[in-house]
Design goal:
alpha+beta, four-stranded antiparallel beta sheet, 7 helices
Length: 270
């Protein structure tokens, strides 16, 4: 019995020591809740810091304008433009004919019309073969969007100009200059049946007269010219732009007319 007492004491002492160490280790993590909460808050703070710069760079000086909705025989067409630094950077049709064969025609024509709009920077784009109505509606809505942009820029510039036109002498001279008529002849557009060249008279920023000084002639071209040119002249004055419809049966003459008309408008200052 005397030999076993020291051993038991050693075993009991060792067990008590081990139990104490285990108890201390188990209490240590729970005594530091602040570090655990800080570790959980760090990712959310970093995420919040990343969101604000993304939102700030969303609109980098770009302007979005929707054209008027144009009703066509197969449905409504409406164009939206995105403009930055005075240039069209994106064009899209937010409304287009759908259902039946219209789905195929829309899928065929709209991407091409969007691409041509950005390339041309105007509504003077070609219609897509097989989607004439969609193309015409697209160009009309596109022109209305361009008109809205032009009106917005004109109003902003007129606001700054009015502050500098306090002298009545300078304003009257500019008004008389605008009232003067100007005649401009467009470049010759070569077509499959002959050259087309348009001359316009502009007064007060509007087309007051349009005429074809050259047009295809000879054979059936005489009939087509007599049929199409008067109508094209009339539409050019009514539209005030080159965004006019082609005359059925005189596609080549109409295309050449619009090209020469656009060049005349460019020379006249838009």
């Amino acid at each position: 019995m005397r030999k076993t007492h020291p051993i038991r004491r050693v075993v009991l002492a060792t067990a008590a020591t081990v139990s104490g160490v285990v108890l201390l280790l188990s209490l240590k993590p729970s005594s530091d809740p602040a570090s655990a909460s800080a570790a959980g808050a760090a990712p959310s703070a970093a995420a919040a810091g990343q969101e604000s710069p993304q939102g700030g760079t969303g609109a980098a000086g770009a302007t979005t304008v929707d054209g008027d909705a144009t009703q066509t025989q197969y449905g409504v067409v409406q164009v939206r433009l995105t403009v930055a630094n005075g240039k069209i950077t994106q064009a899209q049709a937010i409304q287009a004919p759908k259902g039946g064969t219209s789905d195929q025609k829309t899928a065929l024509s709209v991407p091409q019309l969007n691409k041509e709009t950005v390339a041309a920077q105007s509504a003077n784009i070609d219609s897509v073969s097989g989607a004439t109505y969609t193309s015409t509606g697209y160009k009309q809505s596109l022109q209305s969007a361009l008109d809205k942009l032009k009106a917005a820029s004109a109003s902003s510039s007129s606001g700054s100009a009015s502050s500098g036109s306090s002298s009545s002498g300078s304003s009257s001279s500019s008004g008389s200059a605008q009232a003067q008529a100007k005649t401009v002849t467009g470049q010759v557009a070569q077509t499959q049946y002959g050259p087309v060249q348009v001359r316009i008279t502009v007064s007060g920023g509007k087309i007051t007269k349009a005429e074809a000084v050259q047009a295809p002639s000879g054979g059936t071209s005489d009939q087509k010219t007599a049929l199409s040119v008067p109508k094209l002249n009339q539409e050019a004055v009514a539209a005030g732009s080159a965004n006019i419809d082609s005359v059925s049966g005189a596609t080549y003459t109409s295309t050449g007319y619009k090209q020469s008309l656009q060049s005349a408008l460019d020379q006249a200052g838009g």
